[in-house]
Amino acid sequence: MSASNYNWVCFGCRTVVRYPKTSQQSPNCISCQEECFCLGYKVAVPKKDDVKAWANLQKDCRERSFAYSEQARENLVRRKHNIEREINRLEALGENKGRTPKINELKKELTN
Ligand SMILES: [Zn+2]
After folding, report:
1. What is the distance between the alpha carbons of residues 88 and 46, in angstroms, rounded to a whole number?
2. Distance from C-alpha of 70 to C-alpha of 67, rounded to nearest angstrom
3. Strand intervals (E) in the chain
4. Distance between Cα 4 and ligand 1 center (Å)
């Protein structure tokens, strides 16, 4: 199997679309025009009439993308803590020509 294409699936229709992995956009399902879900190329696609396997696959994918967004949220919180700590550290050092803009920059980053 070529690794230059990924399998994209529509869980509703149980269809597969082969689409380049380099594409920034998700392909749409050929039947319902809904956006397809990217499976990559390692995950086996169930047979079209294997409803149970498709349901399991969808469940796995949901859990995986949930875990992924949880991880992303955690990283963001951790990053903000690091910035806060750095601001406190710089502020404790006192005013300084180079330090003040740096502190302001970090504070701005916090509000993003
Ligand atoms: Zn579809």
Report:
1. 54
2. 5
3. 5-10, 15-20, 37-40
4. 23
The Å distance, Cα 38 to ligand 1 centre, comes to 13
Residue-range domain boundaries for the chain: 1-45, 47-112
Distance, CA of 105 to CA of 56 (rounded, Å): 47
34 C-alpha to ligand 1 centroid (Å)? 6
pTM above 0.85, yes or no: no
For 34-80, what is each residue's pLDDT tens digit?
Answer: 999 999 888 999 999 999 999 999 999 999 888 989 999 999 999 99
- From ligand 1's centre to the CA of 110, what distance in Å? 41
Strand 15-20: give its sheet, edge to edge: 15-20, 5-10, 37-40
Distance between Cα 69 and ligand 1 center (Å): 24
